[in-house]
Amino acid sequence: MRAGWIRKSVFLVLAMFIVVNLLPFYSIAFADSVIPEGPAQPGGPVQPGDPVEPDEHVNPDDSPQGGDTSKGGDPKGGEASKGIDWFSSGNIGGYIPVIWGSVGDILPQSLAIKNGFKVKIKGNKAIVKGSRAHHNGLYRTLVHSNWEFNFFGKKINGKTIGNYIFNEVGRQGLAGTRYNKNHPAVQEYLKKYNLYGKKAANPTPPSIASRAIQGLKLEASTAFKENVQIFSKEAQSAKYAKGAGWIGAGLSIGFTTYDYAAGEKKNHGLASTEYVADVVTGLGTGVAAGIAGSAVAGAIAGTLAAAGVVSLPVVAVGAAGLFFGAVISFGLENWEPAKKAKDWIHGKVNDGLEYVNRKAKDVGGWMKEKTTSAINWAGEKLGNLF
Amino acid sequence: MHFPKRMTVGAYIITFWVAMIMPLVAGFCSIAFPTWSEFWEKVVLCFILAGVIWTILASVFKWFIPPKGRIIPITIGFNFTGIFSSVFLWRITGETLWMGILLTVIYIACIVTGYKYRKTILQEGLAPKTQWGKRVAVLGGISPVGFAFFGGVLGSNAGGAFVASIVMVTSNFLCLYFTANIYRAENPDWEPK
User: Fold this and answer.
1) Bias regions of kind Low complexity — which residues (chain A) (predicted)?
2) ipTM of this predicted complex?
3) A169 and A311 within one domain
4) Considering the domain boundaries, does residue B193 fall inside one?
């Protein structure tokens, strides 16, 4: 019997992601066009009903012990003046994508790569050579293990999980599969496969400039497909393998939602245009940093391979991509000139949303006014008749 | 592995400076975070100056034509990525002495390992044979795009020390591989088995 519960729990997790991701769209509908001003500034006129939260506005000079960490304060006191947000609540948001990525993204491809797969072209078929999943160490370990896992009171042994991997993931794995060489997704993969490694052995390699542009275009175009067009066919057909993009996006939205619902920006609340603007800019810069990072890494790898300097394995290109992605988005958050630019975009998005909201309300008001006056007018006329 | 013997001066200059993007980005991080540092600004400017002098000399005297002249200077320049990103992590964790010593030891260990086992590392990188080589290659399954996207999410969410340590680890990993690449300067026609 197929282990249906695994599929069910996967669907449950995905459903939760979808619900979390739809929150921003709900909140546009419920958004209040008047943005809460936030807590009153110390020294300012304090109205009786104002939500005063002095902990969030602690001046490091006033209290050397620092703020209350539970409310987003800085435990090290003066450190905040250096401009780095050391203990942002989004920290967890950093770890989970990595863990998810290593489980959801590596598994299918690793089954093939681990056995040293090679791509052979025969006619219009690209055949992936390599042994199948049951030769894989993970499968063997699981099947021959005596491990027992407790899943909501149900006992599951290693063999079940191993068989699930073999049946579900192994079939999607690359090894032993024949792909249509002319399929766009396969072609993109083959291009990468050739660009970073094998074509360095080509006696007449393309020129440096064309190789650099090729690498840049290739990474940028796949990045676009995998991370931006999250519901496109390319992203969907690869199932678990390429889920990284939109799951990362989901996590980004999820943690912003947390910030506004219960975290640092609780005073704004979910029904504020600030929240939607934060989701939009956060997602945009994250994806942009990813695209830029992998594009730069691809350009470097392509150029150096053409010059015969170094042939980078995919994992090294990946490391370079990680480097650039992290540095670019970190710079956007923490380097003042870049942060100003980002905040400017954030402000513009917020202004736009507020404008739309106000207009919608205005239209509503206008309609109401017209309707009432029409009714009044009709009433008057009708009254005059009798 | 094919080594293109002919190369124009312009192509070499492009290649050199494309390879220097990573050290320069790491250098920028070492200057800018947590506060702007004038000392590290001078160090990075010296690094750029040295690069400019090398490209001029190499272009005039055609030093980049032989494999050693082409590969080794780029390798040396690229290895500054490790130094600068270690400085980035060191400065962001408060410039403590023990951290400085630890980072120096890690960096030197990477370079020494990279040079000593250069053939093995190249072989494992391009066509993994051993268990560990395959384990590392498996990470490539995330694909550069996936890596970069995680980098993007990490960089905007995680704290400075965490991002800096990720940057330090990736650049030291790349320095290890680039140092191993010196083997190809010695044997330009070597191919992985």
Assistant:
1) 39-50
2) 0.87
3) no
4) no
